Amino acid sequence: MVLPLVPWPASVVPLDDVVPTVEPAKHGETLRTDPHLHAEGYRLRIDDSGVLIESSTPAGEFYARQTLAQLAAAGPLPGIEIRDEPRFAHRGIMLDVARHFHPVSTVEAVIRRASALKLNTLHLHLSDDQGWRLALASHPELTEAGSGTAVGGDEGGFYTRDDWQRILDAASAHHMTVVPEFDLPGHTHAIGLSHPELVADPAPSPHLEGPPPPKHEPYTGIAVGFSSLRADAPGLEPFLRDVLTELAALTPGPYLHVGGDEALGTDPADYRAMVSLITRLAAETGKTAVAWHEAGVADLPRGTIGQYWGYRDGSAPECAEWVEKTRRFVDNGGRIILSPADAIYLDMKPHADHPLGLTWANGPTSIERSYDWDPGTVIPGLAEDAILGVEACLWSETVRTLDDIEQLILPRIGAAAEAAWSRPAGTPERTVESFRERMPSH
């Protein structure tokens, strides 16, 4: 039986002994607590007596209601019983608010859309070469000097403390954890606008079409790899301790994301030393550090989480170095978040002539390609219990508005949601053909 559900539930049983459809207005709703259910799992039964939701936590009840809403959107409610729980604990979406700044109202809209697909994590990329987007009491100069512009010379912006609390409150109301990211030690040109003493001179990068941008001027392009902190800068450690400690204090939840990617002009020894320092300082706040897979070369606190952004076929030769660095997190007692760029980087064009998006991750990413992968096979030989979860990423080089966001994330965010929640790909319900049938009603 094909249901218009995203993600596909673990067990769906049509109830042939009751009326085939139920009219909610004529029947009551019953809630029950079952402590034996998975913390995010639920049972949903619809029959001629009404709707029964069983869960062990408010999150489970919330996800049951998302399924109920999906069923209602497709037509009359069927007589059915669903027993459902997620495959992975971390089911996320990343929104880049550094390349283009997005106001609180847009972030709230993304939270609503993502949580309706049972995603439970919002990763916010809060700093990059183009801007520093969160005001800190310890270092107000970061936003004063580094938040005014965006890609293409567009208007910048930043979140005040009240703005940040609004985002946290919206996430909590939708059972989502916020994972904040200050990207370090690369992607740090904006830091240099207020702290030139902490950053190295911009370095040549294969992604630049000309010379590196001046150290003292805002950067409004989209190239990467030219900026870095200085490993030998006096005052670097106190500065990093200040910003990471305040970020941890402002944000509930277990994680601090510290970046670690694309420091292409940084001396390898300096890179390893700075990543080791940054992740240690993050761990000293009581949080677990998360870093992009390049950081696997450093001496990391045990249990640091790695985020893999290589390609979905980790056995391909071009992925060998990425996979090796990713495995080091697991060897160090950590787990992995999978964000294969050629599947669930939502900023990739869905087709070649789409006006938004980029194509560097093996060209445009179609619905079929975004769906045709499985988390358990990306890193060859990686045990499933070493996978923390799945996270779709939306970088904002070409993304200015909520409409732009929706054009790029829908429907491919549904493919990421199914990969994160549902059975492995290839089982009868988990096919792209089934996905295409189920998504339009959603």
Automatic annotation (TrEMBL):
GO molecular function: beta-N-acetylhexosaminidase activity
GO terms for cellular component: membrane
Residue span of region Disordered: 421-442
CDD domains, A to Z: GH20_SpHex_like
Domain called Glycoside hydrolase family 20 catalytic: residue spans: 88-423
Ranges of residues in domain Beta-hexosaminidase bacterial type N-terminal: 30-84
UniProt name for this protein: beta-N-acetylhexosaminidase
EC nos: 3.2.1.52
Family membership: Belongs to the glycosyl hydrolase 20 family.
GO BP field: carbohydrate metabolic process; glycosaminoglycan metabolic process
Keyword annotations: Glycosidase, Hydrolase
Catalytic reaction equation(s): Hydrolysis of terminal non-reducing N-acetyl-D-hexosamine residues in N-acetyl-beta-D-hexosaminides
The organism of origin for this protein: Microbacterium stercoris
List of catalytic residues: 262 (proton donor)
Compositional bias (Basic and acidic residues): 430-442
Membrane-crossing residue ranges in chain numbering: none
